[in-house]
Specification:
Helix content: 55-70%
Number of domains: 2
Shape: elongated
Structural class: alpha+beta
Largest sheet: 10 strands, mixed
Order of helices and strands: HHEEEHEEHEHEHEEEHEHEHHHHH
Strand content: 15-25%
Number of strands: 12
Length: 407
């Protein structure tokens, strides 16, 4: 008996009990669709976090004043009361560290931006002209301020989209003047929309001014809290991290074994930690959903054992007229695989549909990968073979004489 004939007989046998076959496939359908949905949710969350981290700059390092742990006291935020990081340090990093391409001081403050009929409280960052290149953040309207603006501490400012929308609804913000601490600042540009950062903060609710202007005209000090450093490539971030640490220790005259009075953080470390966490969550979600596939496989084994019992006399007749044990075993094994594969294909369609619907209903990002679909097909076939082999082997092992006597 050829394979095609065995498959036709398997389909005919399943068609005789359509309701039972459908209920048996239900476990596989639910299992496969649940796996696809859970994995797509996990991968969607992972892709979303990766995109948010990449939006901050793929080659980015943070250099902050203060060590992360000095005398048991955690710091490293640049506000520990010590001025351990200077503009001269940052100039030296840019000049002497070969794995670094761009450096920008970051002076953080908050202030009220006031126009004749509106006002808005926001975060202001004093930075250098290199910030758009470091953060991979283009200007949507107007232009970013220049190096001459930084040298002269010019009263110019570039605002985010949220600020522009709230202060100048329906108007062009470029060229407008805002007052900050009773000083006029001219808006020279509006940044492209960036969205939320990994902590959920609105990055578009930020304004940028020359760091010299923020130091001299808004804060009245020369402290540098933090610096953005861009490595020449993503692979060079770890080299840059070590070279920056060595240079700052030398410049700050720290003795061997003395703790750092600065902190260098690598965005690659943060990205890898986030990816590892999301990968674990994706595996956990997929494993939980996979339990239903196991239950569906047990259901297939149960139904196939019932089918062997019900068709014992049929098996005896077939073997009595010359059917080999291998043919009987193949028939029941193929019936099991047909059940699991049919349920698997239906589950794939249901899972893909649910993965498309979830973002629109719940707002969760999803990402359906071909790997999860291919894996579901392979797993469905494996379930059919694994759980169908014992009933098929039992059918093939029946004695023809005993089978013919079976009532």
């Amino acid at each position: 008996m050829n394979l095609l004939m065995i498959i036709r007989i398997a389909f005919r046998a399943l068609a005789r009990n359509k309701t039972r076959a459908a209920l048996t496939m239900l476990g596989i359908i639910i299992g496969v669709s649940a796996v696809i949905v859970m994995v797509s949710i996990g991968q969607g969350a992972q892709a979303s976090v990766q995109a948010q981290i990449a939006s901050m700059g793929t080659n980015l390092l943070f250099v902050t004043a203060g060590a992360q742990n000095v005398g048991g006291v955690r710091s490293g935020t640049g506000d520990n009361g010590t001025n351990t990081l200077t503009v001269d340090d940052l100039d030296a990093i840019k000049r002497e560290v070969p794995s670094v391409s761009l450096v920008s001081p970051v002076i953080n403050t908050r202030a009220q931006l006031v126009v004749p009929d509106q006002n808005w409280n926001t975060s202001i960052q004093g930075v250098s002209e290199d910030l758009p290149d470091i953060r991979k953040w283009p200007v949507a309207d107007g232009a970013f301020f220049t190096s001459s603006d930084v040298r002269s501490a010019a009263r110019v400012i570039v605002v985010g989209q949220t600020i522009a929308d709230n202060l100048f609804p329906g108007q062009d913000a470029v060229g407008q003047t805002v007052r900050i601490s009773n000083l006029p600042f001219q808006i020279v540009g509006v940044m492209a929309r960036k969205g939320q950062d990994p902590q959920g903060r609105d990055q578009d609710d930020t304004a940028f001014a020359p760091y010299t202007s923020v130091q001299k005209k808004l804060l009245g000090n020369t402290r540098v809290q933090i610096a953005y450093v861009s490595a020449v490539s993503q692979d060079a971030t770890y080299t840059a991290q070590q070279q920056i640490s060595d240079l700052l220790r030398q410049r700050h005259k720290l003795a061997p074994g003395a703790p750092d009075d600065f902190t260098v953080r690598n965005m690659t470390d943060i990205a890898e930690a986030a990816n590892e966490t999301n990968s674990i969550m994706t595996i956990l979600l997929g494993s939980i959903a996979g339990v239903s596939l196991l239950v569906g496989g047990i259901g297939i084994m149960n139904i196939m054992l019932v089918s062997v019992t019900e068709r014992t006399r049929e098996i005896g007749i077939r073997m009595a007229i010359g059917a080999r044990s291998s043919a009987v075993r193949s028939q029941f094994l193929i019936e099991s695989v047909v059940l699991s594969l049919t349920g698997g294909f239906i589950g794939i369609m249901l899972g893909v549909f649910a993965s498309v619907v979830v973002p629109s209903m719940l707002g969760w990002p999803t990402l359906v990968s071909t790997a999860s679909i291919a894996g579901s097909v392979v797993f469905s076939a494996a379930v059919g073979i694994f759980f169908g082999y014992y009933p098929a082997r039992k059918a093939a092992a029946l004695d023809p004489i005993d089978a013919l006597r079976y009532e």
